[in-house]
Amino acid sequence: MLVIICPNCGPRNSDEFTYQGEVRPRPDVNETNPAEWRRYLYMRSNKAGWVSERWFHVSGCRRYLMLERHTVTNEIRDVEPVGSEQG
Amino acid sequence: MSSHRLDHQPGEVIDRSRAITFDWNGYPYQGYAGDTIASAVAAHGERVFSRSYKYHRPRGILTATYHDPNLMVQVGDDPNVRAAHRLIEEGMVVEPQNAWPSLDFDVKAANRLVGRFLSPGFYYKTFMAPRPLWPAYQKVLSRFANGGRVDPQTEPGRFDHRHAHPDVLVAGGGPAGMAAAIGAAEAGASVILVEEERSLGGHLRYGGSEDLTTLADLAAQVESNPGIEVMTDSVVTGRFDHNWVSVVQRSVPGVSERLVKARVKCLVVAVGTLERPYVFEGNDLPGVMLSTAVRRLINLHGVRPGERAVVLTANSSGDAAVGDLERVGVEIASVIDAREGGSVHTADGSKGVTSVLDWKGRRTEADLLVTATGWTSPTALLNMAGDRPVYVPNAARYVPNELPEEVLATGGIVGDGATDHLIAHGIATGAEAARRALMVRAFWQNAAPAGIRTDIPRVEPVGIPDLGHDLHPEMFRSSTHGIVDFSEDVTSKDLISAAKEGYDSMELVKRYTTVGMGPVQGKVEAVNAVAIHGEAVAASLLETTTTTWRPPYAPVRLGTLAGRKYEPVRYSTIQPWHEANDAVPLVAGQWIRPEHYGDPAAEVRAVRNDVGIIDVSPIGKIDLRGQDVPRLLELVYVNKWSKLDVGKVRYGIMCAEDGVILDDGVTGRLSEDHYMMSTTSGGAGTVWNWLDEWLQTAHPDWDVKPTAVTDGYASINVAGPRSRELVSRLTDIDLDPGAFPYMEVRTGTVAGVDDCFVWRIGFTGELSFEIHIPSSQGLDVWEALIAEGEDLGVRPFGVEAQRILRLEKGHFIVGQDTDGLSQGFGFGVDRAIRLDKADFAGKPELAWQAERGDYPHLVAIHTDDPELVPLEASQIVDPDGTIRGRITSARMSPTLGRSICLGQVDAVLDVADRRIEIQLPNRKRAPARVLATHAHFDPEGTRARG
Amino acid sequence: MTNTQRYSAWSLFRKGLSRSPWPRVLDHHDLQPSYGVVIVGGGVHGLATAYYLARNHGITDVAVIEKSYIGSGGSGRNTAIVRSNYLTPEGSRFYDRSVKLYEGLAEDLNFNVMFEQRGHMTLAHNDASLRTMRWRAEVNKLEGIDSSVISPEAVKELAPFLDVSDHPRYPIMGALWHPPGGVIRHDAVVWGYARAANARGAHIHQETEVTGIDVTDGRVTGVQTSRGPIATGTVINCTAGWASLVAAMAGVHLPITTRPLQAAVTEPVKQFLHPVIVSGSLHTYVSQTSRGELVFGASVDPFASYSTDGSLEFATGLATHVLELMPAIANMRMLRQWAGLCDMTPDFGPIIGPTPVDGFHVDVGWGTYGFKAGPVAGEAVADMIARGRPGELIAPFGLDRFEAGTLTAEKGAAAVGH
Q: How would residue B104 be classed by pLDDT, with cut points 50, 70 and 90?
């Protein structure tokens, strides 16, 4: 059970969250081709190391969060609500 | 009086005023309160407790602890009970486990004669042919199962869980652990101190009077400190990611066992060391014991372990055992000092040791051989914290190497020292643990926006004194071979021959010989196994790696892990009525719903002819408010939503980004900026999250607030030609077809309940009103409908009738008629998929699906035999057996008096009146035909629009 | 067989008398500067491929490169269940071939892999899963596989410890029953293949890590290892857990996410559970070994990770679910838990076949099913290497299907696993 420090709720057990994993930017639906769209659907970096991924605080504040997690040690850093990285 | 019971001992834990009678091996035995099964039996001079797994050799006390591999017994219906841990109780029935037909006489002991043929992995080399005989071989092999028995009638005990959030958790309540707890608590930390034995003290408990005085002093300090919670008879079983620590409390009032799940800010590992056995011929004979076992028996339980002893000692524990034995009058026949090169060659005897041959060939008669040849570091918690402990040859054991910030170690697992030195190390380690923990505590408090702002304490790290290592000879195996793993009957010879056969890494040896795989998990034998393997491959311990200790450190009951049984289910607020009216329950995800009330066919007829009411409260309901709701609907549904006027409802289908159908339902516009979305009952949570995902990740600028209100409303569908008449008796809403047409929504009062909303939709194909009532009053409205509708023939109907009604109408169910690969086209709603919309979830995939055109189609099917209802999932096949589709729904239709089906078929079969064959589970083929429309009944849909 | 002594009851007896040592199962070899075929990964897939290359096609200039010891990955961490009652015709056919190979494996390899066909039972706790069980049974029957849906009474008879009483949340409404399914000694399968491949001339290099894959003009030319370079024109990626990382060394990207799959074992007790029991709704499967231990598995962890540390919530969740099924075993003790790494693909089907890089082949993405498929995958991959193209059995599992959007239909019932 990991601890995720939710920016709204503070440190919480990871079973309050659902995991979405790495996300890729969504192609323009009217311009895309099958290869590009299916990379969006199916391809992930799957790195052994720090990855940026999306979690959802489903049993808490219901915010979608981006965080960095090390996929070997499961260390977590830099938890931010989705969208805040642009502003 | 028991033959081997000593006079009162200063540190004893037994209460001689309370005698207890229990059964061992079919005979009554007496002991005292505080006796373990092992100590009480040993007090009668008994030495054999079990037979070994493979060779069925007699086995007795080895370590006299929870981890003693030879002391597994059956207590009632409880298998594999640790006899050196479980206390005796009045009337307790204890049996040996692995001694068929008896401890004394044992036919399988004949195995010993053929032991030379039972080389490691022998089973991989034989029993292969002839193949038909293999099941018979299996039976023979499985007779060897080395454990107790479970009883299907066992009443599970009571177990529970507790969450804890200590600043510091100290694993191990010996002198260093107690000191660490005191040091941490004095520095302001909240502390949990966990001790595996029933009282604090570690090795001080079976030490001399000075040790007992120190122990009393430390225990008093611990007890008087309000910052320390002590858990005795408890064991830290694991340390997981982010310092999540599991503790099993074995004796808590009111429950059999409790699992404590602790989020620990700093963990202090103070688990001490375990004494390890020495490997030589005869080392598993009853009467060969570790020095700590002897000291426990004498000092804690007042049991004389033998009459005449040989002691092999390499350290102070062995020396102390000599002192204890002498003090209680056991004759010391010989002391072999390993520090001066002494060793044991062989122990001889049949049911127990009778003589010992030393390294110089001298034979000594003795019934007790005590060994003190070194320590195994129980590095489990260190391993679980990511450490790879290092071997120190001078000390002949492993010590911690590199620990993460949130884990510290103290005491015997770190090094050696006089008691006051260990205590000083413990106190400093505890203080440092507190310093680290309090920083984490402040950081976490500050991390929550609503939390109290705390200054992060800036305290200098605490200096922890060094603990050195006493010189200790490296002793693993004598010049003879003996047992390495007592649970698995693995010998040193086995380890060496496995390595020579090519299983030459420690992990392969472990798997091939099963060394360390038994119930004590390599705790006592790990170092010996690694050293002897090293001997075979000519590597020192410095070069070989020890095997990883995996959780749990000690075995944990499944009941303890599970805790209280807690599988919540959901009921609608109308459930009391269903129960009172004999509804048959149906499990639908988390919901328990009425399947029917005795006669689903009659329920269907009531809906078709008069009026029926169904509790549809589990339907997902999501309240949507804001100016941009239409944009959201446009994005998540495949159909058009921009022009939905106030008061209208519309059916929609949602697809995921891969084009696969996700959910369906209707959404209605209640007022200018207020919508209500319905979902399938199973999809309610998924859809709610899906909406939030689009809003937060793609369109944070949109003004939409989704709120799940499924539990906020009870929902009742009133269906049938007389539904208007029934509902009109209870509501102020104008139900006239002109005022409230099909696919519209109204809000108002129903049966005196305000704030209801009603939509006119028709899953059943009949005129129907779906009433959503603030859930606390759902039951009132339901009862009012039943009462008011009596003269109209109102009848409750359940999920089964609803399934039949919708199947008659050809409406599909997401997840039943669709599956994980079903994209939007092919389900009779193709025209609703608007590829001309600018954007919606799954649009590209649906566009490509339409281009390909090779997708399965959902079709209505009639079997030629109207009485035949093919089981759902029956396959639609070509004459040669090629699968062309399957039946997804099938029922007998009370309305049509014949069977009706929906099925997925290859696109080319979707032709009206196309002949097909259904393969039934009994392998017969049923001829059938494809229908032109999905609806078996009222294809024009005039009834619902009435 | 060249340098191997046959195993039999007689040879065992003679060794017992003479006490002479057994010949080595594996030889140590120097790393050669070049090999015809380099197999990355010394698990059941890699070793079986090496074996069938030699046995069926006479190709013996083969190296198996294993970064740890043989069977150290998924092959030694799975719960050793073998079955073929898959949902799709292509899946059923494929795994049926595997079951057939497993049935003859002990004789073929002269190594007792202890395949116990105890029967495999998948419980249905609601209408929807009962329907899926029927679906599987019907497809299986058409493929000639022994598979049927049985009643709760029949369930009770086959597994008396199961609680088939009225149960609010997880009633046992029936089960999919598959008599040929069972359990096997997974390590023995690894060792048996390794011994046989070794005897036929393949070089098995343990403690040797692949650190790079050389690609020139879209063709594989060699492999870099921790013990030096190897020149080769054919590389087969037979890894699990690290499949996407190894493929990336050749510049090939795979639609894989790696998830831990945890398992646990109890202390032994006397035999009481004969068949393998699976509950999809409870994400649990359980079998009893001939040693008396219960072996448990669950679904993959809730998030991607390369950590094999295991978690407490796995243990607690598992125990809860197991006791839903068999409340009478609450006093049995969990002895140890562990995790393996599973390479999950979007449709839960494997990826076998060529890649955009010439000479670089994959046999990966097995999710939670890899062990069951070891023999048939090895046979089919060896056949592909020898003939230069994938055979019919593995044709549905190519890497190109993801871009083409022709996923395997096993996803239709992905929730009912193992």
A: low
- Collapsing DSSP to helix, strand or coil, C42 comes out as coil
Torsion-angle region of C144 (φ positive above 0: left; ψ -120 to 50: alpha; else: beta): left
**Which residue is closest to B657 within chain A, CA to CA?**
A41
pLDDT band at B547 (very low <50, low <70, confident <90, very high): low
- Report strand pairing: B768-774 vs B713-719: antiparallel
Residue type, B350: S
Q: What mean pLDDT is predicted for residues B870-883? A: 95
Residues on chain C touching A21 (C-beta within 8 angstroms): 257, 303-304
C415 and C82 Cβ atoms separated by less than 8 Å: no
**SS3 per-residue string spanning B537-587:** CCCCCCCCCCCCCCCCCCCEEHHHHHCCCCCCCECCCCHHHHHHCCCEEEE
Residue C416 confidence (pLDDT) above 50: no
First-to-last alpha carbon distance for chain A, in angstroms, is 31
Output the pLDDT for position B122: 77
For range B724-749, the mean pLDDT: 96
Residues B781-838: pLDDT tens digits?
999 999 999 999 999 999 999 999 999 999 999 999 999 889 999 999 999 999 999 9
Q: Which two tokens stand for residue B478?
A: 């004598």
For residue B936, the tally of other CB atoms under 10 A from its CB is 23
∠ at Cα B151 (C329, B84), nearest 5°? 75
CB contact under 8 A, B444 and A5: yes
Interface ipTM? 0.97
Choose among C128, C139, C328: nearest Cβ to B816.
Answer: C128
Q: How far is CA B234 from the centre of its chain?
A: 19
Q: How many residues does chain C have?
A: 418
CB of B131 less than 8 A from some CB of C: yes
Name every residue whose Cβ is closer than 8 Å to that of residue B589 and which is 6 or more positions away in sequence: B681, B682
Asked if A33 is an interface residue toward chain C (Cβ–Cβ < 8 A), one would say no
Q: Is B371 helix (H, G, I), strand (E, B) or coil?
A: strand
Task: Give the residue carrying structure tokens 């915010």.
Answer: A63
Angle (nearest 5°) at CA B643 between B640 and B648: 100
Please give the average per-residue pLDDT across C107-134, as a whole number: 94
**Residue whose structure tokens are 């190979």:** C101
Question: CA separation (Å) from B740 to B288, B607, B614, B758, B938?
Answer: 92, 21, 21, 10, 22
Q: pLDDT at position B430, please?
A: 98
The pair of structure tokens assigned to C143 is: 């493929």
Using an 8 Å Cβ cutoff, are B343 and B478 in contact? Answer: yes
Q: Would you tell me how many other CB atoms lie within 10 Å of the CB of residue B633? A: 25
Calpha distance B440→B265 (Å, rounded): 6
Which residues are CB-neighbours of B886 under 8 A, at least 6 positions away?
B873, B874, B875, B876, B903, B904, C135, C138
Over the stretch B378-417, which tens digit does the pLDDT of each residue have? 999 999 999 999 999 999 999 999 999 999 999 999 999 9
* Residue A35 sits at the chain B interface (C-beta within 8 Å): no
Q: Give the angle C10-C16-C20 at the CA atoms, nearest 5°.
A: 105
CA of C34, closest CA in chain B: separation in Å?
Answer: 25
pLDDT, chain B, mean: 93
Please, which pLDDT band fits residue C229 given cuts at 50, 70 and 90? very high
Secondary element (H or E) of residue B801: helix B799-809
Count residue pairs from A and B with Cβ separation < 8 A.
65
CA B89 to chain centre: 31
Residue B734, judged by CB atoms within 10 A of its CB (0-12, 13-18, 19+), counts as exposed
- Contact state of A34 with C405 under an 8 Å Cβ cutoff: yes
β B288-290/B490-491 pair status: unpaired
